[in-house]
Structure formats: structure tokens, C-alpha cells
Amino acid sequence: MQGRQQKTYIDGIDFKNIFQFQSIFGAIASSFQPVRITIGLLMVLVIFAAGRIWDSTSSPLIDSWTSSESIQELEEQRMLTIAKIATAFGHSAPAGSNEWTFSDAHTYLIESWEDYVYEGTVSDADMLEYQQLYELTEQLKPRGVFESSCLYIAHHWNALIDGALDLDFSVMWKSVVAIVWDYPILVWQSGHHWFISLFGFLLIFTLCIGGGAISRMQACQFARQSQLSIDEALTYSWSQWRPAVLAVVSPAMFVAGISILLMLAGLVLFSIPIINVIGSLLYGIALIFGLCIALISIFYAVSFPMLVPAVMVEHCAGGESVQRAFSYVIARSLQYLTYLLLLVIAMVIGFVFVRLVATLTLDVTAALVGSMTLNDSLQGAGAIDSLSTPATGLAWYEQAGSAIISCWEIIVHDCMIGWVFSGFFSASTMVYLLMRRACDGQSTKEIWTEGLIPGTNIPMNDE
Fold first, then answer.
1. pTM exceeds 0.70
2. Helices vs. strands in the chain: H and E counts, helices first
3. Residue 72: exposed, middle, or buried by beta-carbon count in 10 A (0-12, 13-18, 19+)?
4. What is the pLDDT of residues 354-376, one digit of tens each?
5. What is the DSSP string of 4-65?
């Protein structure tokens, strides 16, 4: 579908062509299109489904990534919580409660509360005790690596949003570093190396397919005023999944290769007497490799938003995408950092709006529908609270209705998360086009289409 392009000229000057940084905010507006949010939702469902499967087949983490307490302190708090649950509501501790796991105590708390409610002797003090114990178990219970990852990223993402709203740039920077740099280190140190390898590849693949489709949609809408369907966008991104994955993975693999080389060199040269002297003499070479690791890591993290859009806009190879992104950052560093700042500001504004809409949607719907209901199917409905206590004492049909309503509300919540993907890849596509214009002098309206040589705007010679 073609749209009509409008331009504003004042005294012969095309201001829309000169000042194009506002197109980053325009991309955020376009990211609210239902087709893009649908793709974002599909990405969330794939990632969450795979993560749930992973957690169900792996052992949970003992420590908490969102807490500053040590493992010993957490274990002491868990043992104390188990003792409190065993004697909750004035009951005597059941036989064998001293051998309970934390999961056993969590299950016992809910079951004993359901029995207590059924007896009809619930007081306000009992309700408060149950809520406090339930919140305590939710905070302290061991979680799988995927669930821990979600909580860690969500915690620092919300801190990033709050820091942006408070204009606290130090909090924003710490949150970005925590997500980009500290999180992979935490996963590695926890011993879940296969999670990084296997789930990391699935995550990258999902980002390249779904994010690539969103990026292509934004490029076509901005350059040609055409709206791609979900099928067209996903078909194109699927055809480009190899170069997109290569663009995202190759810098990280190169850094990993050099890191392994340095580790092996340290094992060989600094573990044997006398040989360690030779290793000391060669340590300067190791420093050069370390410098390469540092520089590549920095450029990779900074230029990451442009890697997938470069492939989707140019139809180029993964190596060329990395080359373009790195060279643009080096050539116009200050301008690129300005665009990144605008991207963050646009994302914050967009997410605050999305979160507001999602919260109002859940709360208003629950309030209106539940205002005249004759059963408790809507108990607990409304904006999702991670520490809210589950509904108890419901009939089977009320429990079934409540479960179905929860599924609908989770979809709304997942759409909010899916918008983050839509907004990021839409805005990052515009950042790439603007950087290409600044460095190569190429118009932001030029993108690869059928009939052109891949990576260029040169028509193919059919002969």
C-alpha cells in the first residue's frame, strides 16, 4: 500500500530533509502498529516458552541476582521462613517439617491457607500473616536461570525508566551496564554455560527473524511509504537469517576465540617453572590481545542497534553489516552517541505510554466487568502484581474462569513487552539510515529492493 509523501519547503530549503533526527521519534510512533506489536508478541511467546521449558529441566539458582545478600544469608532467611510457615495461623509444626524444602513449605502455606479459609475462621490478622508469608516466599524462593534472568533484566529496565524520568543519568548508565555487561557475567559465573550457548542462540535467532521483520517494515514505510504485511516481512527476514545471525554473533565469537587463546596461553606459560619467565616476556603481546578484546567489545555493544537493520536495509552479508556499523561509529562517534541518546529518550517515552495504556486497560476492564458479577471469577483481575497472593476458596468453575482471565491478562502484559522489541528495532533502523546518510552521503530513502545487487543500489544486469 503506497502513501503520499509530504515535504515542507521554506525559502527553498527542505527542512524535513536537513533535520531528520526527529524520524527516530516517528519510528517509535510507527512501532505501535498492530502488525509490529503482533510480531513482538510472537517473539515474546517463543522466548518465554523456551525459557519455561529450560527452567523445568534444570536446577534452580541458590542465590538471587536482584539481592545483595550472600548465599549463606539467603539460606538462613529461607530456613527461618520455613519455620514460620510450619507454625503459621497458630498451628503446631507438622511432623517432618524440619526436612522440608523451600518448595514444600511454599506448597504447604497455600494448602493450609485454603483449609483455613474453608473453615471460615479467617481474621484480618490471619489474612495479613498469610500475605506477608506469601510475599516472603516469592522473594526468597530459588528460581530457574531463565526466570532469574527475566527478573534481573526487568529490575534494571525499570530502574532505567525511573532514572530517565528523574533525569538521573548515573542510574541510567548503571542499568544499561547491568543488562549489557553484568548479566552475561552472572550467568557464566552461575555455571549455566549451556544456557548461554543454546538459549543464547535461540534468543539471537528470534531477534534476527522477528526484529529483522520489524526493521524491514520500518525501512519500507519510511523509504517507500509502503506497508508490509506480517507474511511479507517475516518472509524477507527469514531469507536473511544467516547474514543477520552472523552479524550479531561474529564479533562475540571473535572475542570468545581470543579470550580462550589467552586462557590457554596463561595455563601453558604461567604454570611451569622457568617457562613462566618466557610468559612474562610475552605478556606484552597478551596485553595487545586484551586491548583488541576491549575495543571490539565496546564497539560491538555500542553498534549493536545497527547490526540487524544493516542486513535488512542493504540485503548485505553479515561481515559487511559489522564493517558498516563499526565504521559509522568510528567516523561519527559523537553524532552516533547523540542518536543513541535520542533512541533511549524515545524508548522511555514510548514505554511509559505503553505501560500506562496496558495498566489502564487491565484495571478499567476488571473494574467494569467485575462491578456487577455474581461470583469470584474476577478475583485478582487487574494490573499484574508479581507479589499478589493467589485466589483461594473458589469453586471449580470460578477457578477455571480466573485461570482463563489470567491468560488474557498475560497476553496484554506480553504485548507490552513485545512493544519493546517493536520500538527498539523500528528506532534503531532509523538510527542506521541516519548514520549511513551522515557517513556515506546516501539518502535515507534508498533501500535494497528486488532487482538490485545485494548491498548496493546498482541494478542487476539481466544479460
1. yes
2. 19, 2
3. exposed
4. 999 999 998 888 888 877 777 77
5. -----EETTEEHHHH--TTHHHHHHHHTTSHHHHHHHHHHHHHHHHHHHHHHHTSPPPSS-T
